[in-house]
Amino acid sequence: MDISTGDLGVYAFGRFRLDRTHRTLTCGGMPVKLVPRLFDLLLYLVENPSRVVEKDELFAAIWGGRIVEESSLTQAISALRKALSAEGAGDMIVTAPGRGYRFAAGVSLESGATPFVLHGSSSQTFAETTVAGTPVVETTRAEAAVAKQPNAPRWRARILGGSGLALAACALLAWRLIPARAPAPPTEAAFAPPAHSVAVLAFSNMTGDPGQGYFSDGLSEELINALAHIDALHVAARTSAFSFRDTRATAGEIGRRLNVGAVLEGSVRREGARLRIAADLIDTQTGFMLWTHAYDAGQAGTLSVQTEIATAVTEALRVTLGVSEAGRLTMGGTLNPAAYDAFLHAISAQRAATETGWTEARRGFEQAVGLDPQYAEAHAALSRAMNWIASSGTMNDTGLVKSLKAQALAEADRAIALAPALPDGYAARASVLEDELAFGDAYDAIRRAAELGPGNASVQQFYGQFASRMGHVAEGEAAEQRGVALDPLSARSFMALAVVYLIDRRYDEALEALQHMQVLAGRVPPIAAQLRVVIALRRGQWAQAADLAGQTQGWPQSEYQAIAYHALGRQADADAAFARLQGLQGENGNFQYAEVYAQWGETGRALEALEAAWRERDAGLVDLRASAFLDPIRSTPQYAEMLHRLHMPP
Question: pLDDT for 15-36, tens place per residue?
């Protein structure tokens, strides 16, 4: 709060008057009974309008710092809301999930006959905004409600006109009430986020049942996806936005770390068929509320609420949607609440990134498309689940694997047919085709997905990786830079960027990206250790590469030691490392064998290994053009013929 009021008057908000001196609360002139602690709690919130008051601050102010259960605060807030609700104003106190509470109504201080409007509130009785550089006075919904009361007093703030003497008196009073402040410390670089930028934080599950977390998380993620369909918006990706779950970071701190101008936070409460969703959109530069609303609906109304929230966010960020763009907010979705619920369950299951999780997700997506065959987003998700199980699972039956991949491709094509402007279907199609070594068609599909989804971080990352591997490094880097901008707190974003730099042989930049990745991950991920070995090998730092390879696990350790030891003249050690590699990989390691043979100068054996990789449909062939380890054999006719056979794009 910007001013200290002391005993100067009575706080006014809506039909309520809160007298600090006499410790009374009235509504329309009638007393409202509050026990002392509830009165103190209300007074503290009213004296700090608009801002979120942290829980610890309330414990210190109301309980004097004594150690009490958090439930004591929750119960006190509930009782206070109940008291206000009796007068139809229970929504004046808004929960900031995981942080504290905010008094949302406009507050003024009545000193004598003239009200004094408290500064620092984005929900003041008269909120000052600027349109084209001109101050404008707006009356909030709370003030409008008061104005409708037949006998309600109607105060008019003398901002744009009236007595100059009155203005001077108000200015003097405000000056005297503002405490002296120390000189401000040097400020950091000005925060200038992109226009129309927003982060959707993980909505809080207020149901009391952790098992309902899938719904609040899923709703948040679907809001991210819907908003990302609007090209004029810059929407932070899920990984970065959800990283603030259970933290006390302010909107300003979140805005700076994600480089966004607004954050959307909210909560979800499900009680049987009843659903309550609250959402707040906060300006990260000013801390002011841009928009807030609470929705009460049955489960069947979830879909319309999701669309209403997304539409309200675009309007609050001053993005005008045409008819076609408005339709993109619901693109690929469903109107079937049961299908939607099954879909949210499934995307929660796949987060485990295990075969069990993907199998459960597949069942959920199949249920969703069974309930609504027109659900394009679910068809695309089902395609990804099927392809993961077929390519990365433990299924040993070749016939079943082939059949499942065919189903995955059919599901992707179904998604494209249902929603041609939805990037998900093209991305799913590209994944299947990549695993089938149909690289030209896969490149066309993921490039189309990237064109349709410039605001989709995962699509941009996929496109960046694949384009770079196909030899289109400039395109790949541009896509990965977009991915980093959308998902700046994701270690995966910087890993993907490091791979592109590595392919382009910009090793210093690759190492810098890996350093960012490690900071975000809080450790040295295995992929980071692996890429550091590759950089040392490509720089000819053989001894360092051999040592770094010893810190990795599995086939990378054996392959990279085989290359490093050979270059160091330690052929016996190189042969032993290569034997370990063959023992680990068997028929699945022919591409790695080709890399080792090429580095050993054994061109014939390297080309034979590539042929074997083709016969075994070795997924490593995606790096045929990108791998610097194959440089010694690039000029051979067999290498050129292999590029043609794989339909590598020119």
Answer: 888 888 778 888 888 888 787 7
CATH of domain 454-523: 1.25.40.10
- Higher pLDDT residue, 303 or 368? 368
Most confident of 4-13, 42-51, 140-149, 588-597: 588-597
Classify domain 202-330 at the CATH topology level. Rossmann fold (3.40.50)
Cα separation, 106 vs 118, whole angstroms:
9
3-state secondary structure 415-454: HHHHCCCCHHHHHHHHHHHHHCCCHHHHHHHHHHHHHHCC
Contact criterion met (CB below 8 Å) for 563 and 536: no
Q: Which CATH architecture has domain 334-451?
A: Alpha Horseshoe (1.25)
Cite the residue boundaries of each domain of the chain with CATH code 1.10.10.10: 10-177
What is the number of other CB atoms lying within 10 angstroms of the CB of residue 267? 21
Tokens describing residue 338: 């049961």
Predicted structure pTM score: 0.72
Structure-token pair, residue 518: 């490690």
Q: Which residue has the tokens 């707190």?
A: 489
What tokens does 138 get?
């707006």
Four-point Cα dihedral 526, 527, 528, 534, nearest 10: 120
- Window from 12-21, 499-508, 591-600 with minimum mean pLDDT: 12-21
Q: Quote the CA–CA distance of 205 and 277 in Å, as a whole number.
A: 10
- Write out the residue limits of the CATH 3.40.50.10070 domain(s) in the chain: 202-330
Tell me the CA end-to-end span of the chain in Å, nearest whole number.
Answer: 62
Q: Which helix (H) or strand (E) holds 10?
A: strand 10-13
CATH architecture of residue range(s) 10-177: Orthogonal Bundle (1.10)
- Kindly state the DSSP code that residue 120 receives in the 8-state scheme: T
Contacts of 540 (CB under 8 A, 6+ apart): 567
Question: What backbone torsions phi and psi does residue 281 show, to the nearest 5 degrees?
Answer: -110, 120
Confidence at 270, pLDDT banded by 50, 70, 90: confident
CA–CA gap between residue 226 and residue 206 (Å, rounded)? 23
pLDDT at residue number 187: 45
Give the tens place of pLDDT for each residue, 340-381: 999 999 999 999 889 999 999 999 999 999 999 999 999 999
Select from 556, 179, 614, 567 the least CA-distant residue to 439: 614
Contact 457, 635 (CB under 8 A): no
